[in-house]
Amino acid sequence: MAFESLASRLQGAFDKLRGRGKIDETAVNEAMREVRLALLEADVNFKVVKEFIARVKERAVGQEVLKSLTPGQMVIKIVNEELTALMGGDVAKIAVANRPPTVVMMVGLQGAGKTTSTGKLAKHLQKQNRKPLLVAADIYRPAAIKQLQVLGEQIKAPVFSLGDQVSPVEIARQAIEHAKENHLDYVLIDTAGRLHIDEALMEELRQVREVAKPDEILLVVDAMTGQDAVNVAESFNQQLELTGVVLTKLDGDTRGGAALSVKAVTGKPIKFAAMGEKLDALEPFHPDRMASRILGMGDVLSLIEKAQEAVDTEKAKQMERQMRQGEFTFDMFLDSMQQMRNLGPLEDILGMLPGMNKLKGNMKVDEKQIGRVEAIVKSMTKAERANPDLLNASRRKRIAAGSGTSIQEVNRFIKQFEDMKKMMKQFTGMTDKIKKKQKKG
Ligand code: GDP
User: Fold this and answer.
1) ipTM passes above 0.90
2) Closest Cα partner for 184 from 209, 226, 156, 216?
3) Which domains does the chain have, with CATH numbers?
């Protein structure tokens, strides 16, 4: 999970403040010392930490906080606001050219996730009804062109390639022409990477920039490399003048140093964050939501957005209608489980709920257990799924054998299912009553 160790350190520091009725300057200083250590341990740039702590302290020992009724909460609120500001404040959106196509150069070192991110970005744009063209201009890494073509096939986006014998400059020039002729509105150029920054690479990128006149130059960096990522960003920015950063592999970054320092050090915002290898694992970077997540306040907004994308609304509506009529079948249960799964690993989902970050340590989500429950439902016949009353002892025995579980497990699940059904009935009954009352009133 992203930022796990930083989050638990910071939350630990704040727990001490939260409990107190009164807070004095010493208590604030003590908490700030811990925050400072937590940030340094998270590999946040030293200067950035120093300035951050100074800003928070200045605000936190002010009258408004010490005299407020919940000073602990006030300090946390200030830290939340300052973390948000540190990461850039508002969401930095991707450019849109006045006259299409919008040209985006994707740059970065080898292995950072540049090619994958190019594919993910194309998919993100498609979701907004844009038509991206992927351009294979990394002619040095042997598999890069093929990799982009495979990505293009997966998302059904056109890929422009002239093989590895034509110069990247020429590829970029022709690709933009191609996009214009075919009314494609984004040109995403996957440029060459290197293992290290060198002058030849920069020169080539400058030449491509000269011809492509990009609206965006996005640097892809690997969050897991911490301060190295920040240094890479600084060099690229000095030599190429970036417009933004794509931070990859946040799913494996427990510390968060790069995310917290990039904007402050380079002045360039993080525009997108990648949190996994799958093609839909790229999101616009929301500094405020990220700050809330780090502080264990959850990220309910992102969760809702995810749900809107992953959940089949027609199905959900139908399910709601059925539930209103007191109907809840195993099939509906299975459907809702599958929709939940579309949201991603449960642990990540839980991390977005307020306060769950801390709980998660004690409450390992057992994905295997969920798989077993699914197997049980799948071992039922159609008739059984629609009508739990049919499930007598011999049927239960068959289901246990079919799903590789035990009769006890099957019994326990059916009992849980019945309880759930009862609860839902009560719940819909309650909301109906409230609605009726509202109508009368
Ligand atoms: P490039 O050399 O910069 O083009 O790097 P690639 O796009 O080929 O990616 C290098 C490796 O990192 C691949 O195995 C990707 O699947 C993986 N990768 C890229 N982005 C992410 C991410 O956000 N999370 C994880 N876990 N892996 C990623």
Assistant:
1) yes
2) 156
3) 4-86 (1.20.120.140), 102-304 (3.40.50.300), 305-440 (1.10.260.30)
